[in-house]
Amino acid sequence: MKKPAAKAAGWFRPAATLDLHRFTVAESEDLLEEFLHRQFQAGKEWVLVLHGAKTLSNVVERVLKRHPLVEDHEPDNPGATRVRLAKRK
Question: Please, are residues 85 and 45 in contact by the beta-carbon 8 Å criterion?
């Protein structure tokens, strides 16, 4: 996966962030689905999902792999994932 284009300091600056730390697996799946749809509709390209390094990381990976609005994704660190959404047509 290509890294986001470098900005002034070369930092990744997501257009939006979703923090799933306090939610159950089922809640996290629903919240992630809703988040991805909302951000796609808003025309966002890069978003960040905070999930922690344990159970939810597997859930997030599974959802992102099969989601039709996700162009690509990669770990930002063990507890967060960068997501590139598809472009609106």
Answer: yes
What pLDDT shows up at residue 3?
A: 53
d(CA 40, CA 87): 8
Beta bridge partners of 75: 81
- pTM of the complete model: 0.86
Pick the CATH number of 16-85 from 3.30.450.20, 3.40.50.11270, 3.30.930.10, 3.30.1370.110: 3.30.1370.110
| Burial class of residue 51 (count of CB atoms within 10 Å of its CB; 0-12, 13-18, 19+) | buried
What average pLDDT does the segment 14-35 reach?
97
SS3 26: helix
